[in-house]
Structure formats: C-alpha cells, structure tokens
C-alpha cells in the first residue's frame, strides 16, 4: 500500500512540475520540449548530506590499541612512525567523539605548511580556502564522525567549536577545554614545538603526530618532533607511541611500499 501511495505522489509531482514549466514557457513566449519537462519533473531528489558515523572507534592492531589507550589517559601523546598507520584518523575521530560527548568545548587541528607565501598567493580564495587542501584528510574524518551539518555549524567563526588552522596561527594563544592536534609535526622547528606545547591550559588533550623520516626542513635545522622525543619520557601525563611498517592499515600495497623502503 505504501508503495502505491509513493507512486501516486511521484505522478502528481511530475504533473505539477510539468504544468508549472509549461505555464512558465507560455509567459515567456517559448515552448519547452515535453521530453525535457518529463526528465526534469522525474529527476531524483538530491541525496541528503552524509549521516554521522556512530560506529565505535576500534584499534586494528596492537600499536593502535596502545595509541587509543594513551589518548584516553594522557594529557600529551606523541605518535610517530610510518604513513598509513591511522595516526591522524584515530586522533581526529577521538577528538570528534569528545566534542559530541561534551567532554571538551573545541577541537583545534593545525599543521605546518612549508610552502612559500608567494606560491600560496596565487591560489584563489581567502586564507582558509588557500590552506584547505592541506587539511583535507582531517576534514574528511571530521565530516564522517560529526556529520556534515554539525561540522558546518562548528566551523562557523561565531561558533568556532572546530578550528582548522595553519601552525602560524597558534602563536600567542592559550587553549583550554579542547583537544589540540598537531599533524605533520616533523616539520616544526625546536622553538616552534616549544611555543606550541606551552600554549596549553587546563583540560586540554594534546596529540602530536608525525614521521621523522618525512621531514622537509632544511638539513641544518633539527626537527622539533625529533627533539621532543629526546626530551620527553613516558609518564602519567605523557605517552609515546611508535608505529612500524607492519602497523600500516591503509592498504596491503601501502605496507609493501613501506617495507620496500626500509
């Protein structure tokens, strides 16, 4: 019975759309092909925005399990190692869940962008649009875990529950009641890392992700991530997680490529 009703409603909608288009064509002095009218009237509705993914955040291997435990229990977690191990995905997913659970008021995601300002100047749009491609992986995870509509709301400047910003924007600020993620941390200098870590106030979880083997800093400049790993030791407040090539979960081909370059 429900199927018949839906069918009748679609027929009624097509007839109504056809009549509107025909009336409009007469007013403007031209005729619209009836085939085009039928195609427009019967076109499927636009797909709704992707729904929020409420599936549990689960570890796929032992390294990820240790990582999730650290994120749950430590104020500061350093995660280093190979690409494709889920460092960014898990950190962002955990941050999104904490925002949904109202454990924090805000998510801040940042990363250094080692590209000349004059090159970025040629890109269209404002500052957020220029840097958007660098943050696409994080945005995709947030969209999946928060849902498109809620993410759009959180990104509004007057709401600012989610902030995705270049690393240069971190200077001079203090973060509280937030999850703060520094991605691609191998590309910050020692002084920049110190500046970042001393921005943190109360009720803040700091997640620092990177791969020292992919450092793009000049050869005579030490990576702030490498330096931090030498300075910090595991403690009740600090977690150090290292991912290896065998921990790759992106794909079997990615794992083969990582092992080929060991």
Verbal overview:
With 262 residues, this protein is an alpha/beta fold. It folds into 2 domains: 41 residues; 199 residues, 3-Layer(aba) Sandwich (Rossmann fold). It is 44% helix and 13% strand. It is built from 11 helices and 6 strands. Strands 3-2-4-5-1-6 form a 6-stranded parallel sheet. Helix 9 links the parallel strand 4 and strand 5. Helix 4 runs parallel beside helix 7, helix 7 crosses helix 8 and helix 9 packs across helix 10. The longest helix has 27 residues. The protein is globular. The N and C termini lie far apart (63 Å). About 5% of the residues have low confidence.
Q: Which features does this protein show?
A:
Phosphate starvation-inducible protein PhoH; 6 strands; 13% strand; 262 residues; PhoH; globular; Rossmann fold; 2 domains; alpha/beta; 44% helix; 11 helices; 6-stranded parallel β-sheet
**Total of domains:** 2
Stated plainly, the CATH topology of the largest domain is called Rossmann fold
CATH architecture of the largest domain: 3-Layer(aba) Sandwich
Question: How much β-strand is present in the residues?
Answer: 5-15%
Q: Biggest sheet, open or closed, and with what strands and sense?
A: 6 strands, parallel
What is the H/E order? Answer: HHHEHEHHHHEEHEHEH
Q: What class, by secondary structure content?
A: alpha/beta
Number of helices: 11
What is the 3D shape? globular
What share of residues is helical?
40-55%
The Cα radius of gyration reads 25 Å
Please write the CATH class name of the largest domain.
Alpha Beta
């Amino acid at each position: 019975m429900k199927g018949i009703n839906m069918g009748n409603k679609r027929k009624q909608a097509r007839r109504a759309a056809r009549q509107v288009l025909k009336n409009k064509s007469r007013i403007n002095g031209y005729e619209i092909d009836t085939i085009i009218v039928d195609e427009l009237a019967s076109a499927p509705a636009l797909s709704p925005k992707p729904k929020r993914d409420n599936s549990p955040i689960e570890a796929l291997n032992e390294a990820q399990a240790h990582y999730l435990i650290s994120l749950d229990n430590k104020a500061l977690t350093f995660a280093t190692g190979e690409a494709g191990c889920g460092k960014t995905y898990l950190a962002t997913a955990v941050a999104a869940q904490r925002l949904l659970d109202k454990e924090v008021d805000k998510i801040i995601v940042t990363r250094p962008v080692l590209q000349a300002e004059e090159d970025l100047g040629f890109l269209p749009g404002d500052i957020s649009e220029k840097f958007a491609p660098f943050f696409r992986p994080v945005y995709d995870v947030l969209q999946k875990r928060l849902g498109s509509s809620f993410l759009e709301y959180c990104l509004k400047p007057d709401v600012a529950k989610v902030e995705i910003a270049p690393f240069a924007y971190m200077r001079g600020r203090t973060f509280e009641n937030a999850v703060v993620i520094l991605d691609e941390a191998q590309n910050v200098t020692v002084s920049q890392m110190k500046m970042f870590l001393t921005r943190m106030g109360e009720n803040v979880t700091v997640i620092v992700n990177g791969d020292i083997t992919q450092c793009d800093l000049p050869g005579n400049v030490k990576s702030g991530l490498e330096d931090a790993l030498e300075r910090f030791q595991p403690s009740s407040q600090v977690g150090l997680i290292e991912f290896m090539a065998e921990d790759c979960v992106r794909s079997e081909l990615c794992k083969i490529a990582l092992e080929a370059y060991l």
